[in-house]
């Protein structure tokens, strides 16, 4: 149970907003994630709008059965949520309805959750292919094929995508709370830089991290730890350390956290990663991307279209209306912009990562429950 998902939020509304539960039980109150709200409105809203979601968004409510792809009666009963208020679950790529108003006559097709759309946009169609989105936080997804893989290492088992009547494809997801947000913190809270892009130049004023690690557990630790009582630390400080070292340690923190998630994925799936496709705002930071490749020991690949979430939704819609014939046609449309290859020797990689793991331990238990 986690409030990260929609289900507990619905329960809270039904339990705390006067009249909400009565309306829900009479069929006068609907629920939907953002995708449902948008599709509902562009297809007519209260004047005949379509109330649907797709398997990827439904999987993030904690109310869908991952095996049957239907709403789970046991979970609905557990949380006291009437089935009548939930949208119909559809494939990620199909025509859901027709637009109205400015979109009159336009087929509304293609619906995926944010990170699943990025996985699809990165054309990670084979089991073992993974992508990492570098934004305010980081979200890594690994395609695990047509069977869900229960995680024993702190990851989320989720839907990757479902194309029409084809079998659903599953994924493992690792969520990192603070990555790009750490750069923003250095800018806004400490004033070390004037704009986020300045972080790379500042980090490059030094050769290494000066022996420090920056673990940004500002709101606890997400995957693979899930410790809400953790808080951020900078360890290894000496008088030698300057703002350049802090900047470099902040960038390295993103790469270290990504490796932790990747190792959890390798343990769960049994499929070692051979390359990592990346997207999001931070992928234009060459220093970070090179260090990411070094600490993982695999190539890191940036596509020509870095906004892969929007691209993935467009791919799904294009398949639904016949613009593309089949999923494999999309691989030809995906292109590599730049690849970073590891240059660090294995001994140094292991030593740096061991130091990170020691630093993470110092974040545990700061908030006393």
Characteristic key phrases:
369 residues; seven-stranded mixed β-sheet; 13 strands; single chain; globular; alpha/beta; 12 helices; 34% helix; two-stranded parallel ribbon
Structure description:
The structure is a single chain. This protein has helices spanning 6-16, 20-25, 34-42, 55-58, 73-79, 114-121, 180-188, 198-203, 243-269, 286-296, 308-320, 346-361; strands at residues 52-54, 88-90, 95-98, 107-109, 130-134, 138-145, 156-161, 169-176, 213-215, 233-235, 276-279, 300-303, 336-340. The longest helix is centred in the last third of the chain and has 27 residues, at 243-269. Helix content is 34%, strand content 16%.
How do the helices and strands line up, and which of them pair or pack?
Layout: H1 6-16, H2 20-25, H3 34-42, E1 52-54, H4 55-58, H5 73-79, E2 88-90, E3 95-98, E4 107-109, H6 114-121, E5 130-134, E6 138-145, E7 156-161, E8 169-176, H7 180-188, H8 198-203, E9 213-215, E10 233-235, H9 243-269, E11 276-279, H10 286-296, E12 300-303, H11 308-320, E13 336-340, H12 346-361
